[in-house]
Write a structure and sequence with these properties.
Distance between the termini: 30 Å
Helix content: 25-40%
Largest sheet: 5 strands, mixed
CATH class of the largest domain: Alpha Beta
Mean pLDDT: 91
Number of helices: 12
Radius of gyration: 20 Å
CATH superfamily of the largest domain: Periplasmic binding protein-like II
Strand content: 15-25%
Strand order of the largest sheet: 2-1-3-12-4
Number of domains: 2
Number of strands: 13
Length: 313
């Protein structure tokens, strides 16, 4: 984790305080968090480097995975305790009876921080939803938030969302698929979004996520129900430290730019990057819109109450 370097990067003007009771000297509780080491994980990385989790008696380790699905599978298998996953990934799992629960907040979409945008080629003629009838959309994963947002955007802009065709293309290959005209559009996130905008290889048509809801959870931290029940105290302390880290990062995006580079190994200009904002509470109202939209646009078979997948403690 290059902990010493992380601490030096955030030492200047980056003071976070935590009013927590002194913990007796004991071996810290180990907490392994699996997931892609993307920009939105900087709050956890900051918390590790600045000792926020250590102060509440938790040894947090970030474990890199290729995607959220792989992280979720590892938690289900008992390999790791927590995974960062897209909310849309846990919905079908819940309906299949897999005992997963969201235990801590993470990435939030709001119109003020549109970190993933609907991109097309600079000379593309598309303007409204109807222009996409029958078109092919590239998505990093089928039945993902990007697929959901495209269906919702096309529907709300006069098109036939059921006519859309989706093919799975890795994030790293989406821009190439667009320029080679193998797909007609894609919802791009950083760093592909920022790279393509700086290079002029794509143009922004819309903020497709806004068609899902004006504000909602994109991703959260999940665990097995049984593990969460048995480790409620650990999770409370983890959330306490995570909130402190998240509040700092949310309000110091320029200052935490070096941590983005260190964590993600990206080389682009972070000052021009679309940064994410992370949540600080497990607000049921921010999960429900995704569940309802997923049911409406056929990602899941039926809607259900958000409290069914959110840790109650």
């Amino acid at each position: 984790m290059h902990r010493s370097r992380a601490i030096s990067l955030i030492a200047t003007g980056a003071t976070a305080s935590m009013a927590v009771p002194a913990l007796a000297q004991r071996t810290p509780d180990k907490l392994r968090i699996a997931g892609p080491l993307t920009e939105d994980m900087v709050n956890v990385y900051y918390g590790i480097g600045h000792g926020l989790f250590g102060r509440v008696g938790i040894d947090v380790e970030l474990v890199a995975t290729s995607n959220g699905a792989a992280a979720t599978d590892a938690v289900v298998a008992g390999t790791y305790e927590i995974a960062k996953t897209a909310v849309t990934s846990i919905l079908p799992a819940h309906l299949r009876g897999i005992p997963l629960t969201m235990v801590a907040p993470q990435t939030i979409y709001t119109p003020r921080n549109p970190f993933a945008l609907l991109q097309v080629l600079p000379d593309a003629p598309y303007r409204t939803g109807v222009d996409f009838n029958g078109k092919t959309i590239g998505v990093p994963g089928l039945n993902s938030l990007n697929q959901l947002s495209m269906r919702a955007w096309v529907d709300k802009n006069g098109g036939d969302w059921k006519s859309l065709k989706f093919i799975e293309v890795p994030n790293s290959a989406l821009v190439a698929a667009l320029t080679q005209k193998r797909i007609d559009a894609a919802v791009l996130a950083s760093p592909q979004l920022d790279d393509s905008l700086q290079e002029g290889t794509t143009k922004t048509l819309a903020d497709a996520y806004a068609a899902v809801a004006p504000r909602f959870f994109v991703a959260a931290f999940m665990a097995l129900n049984d593990w969460a029940s048995k480790h409620a105290d650990v999770l409370r302390r983890f959330n306490q430290a995570l909130v402190t880290a998240t509040n700092y990062v949310n309000t110091h995006l320029p200052e935490t730019g070096p941590l983005v580079i260190e964590l993600t190994k990206m080389t682009l200009d972070v000052s021009k990057m679309h940064r994410t904002i992370n949540g600080t509470t497990l607000d049921l109202a921010l999960f429900q819109p995704v569940i309802d939209a997923a049911a409406r646009y056929d990602l899941i078979s039926r809607p259900f109450a958000a409290k069914e997948i959110v840790w109650s403690s």
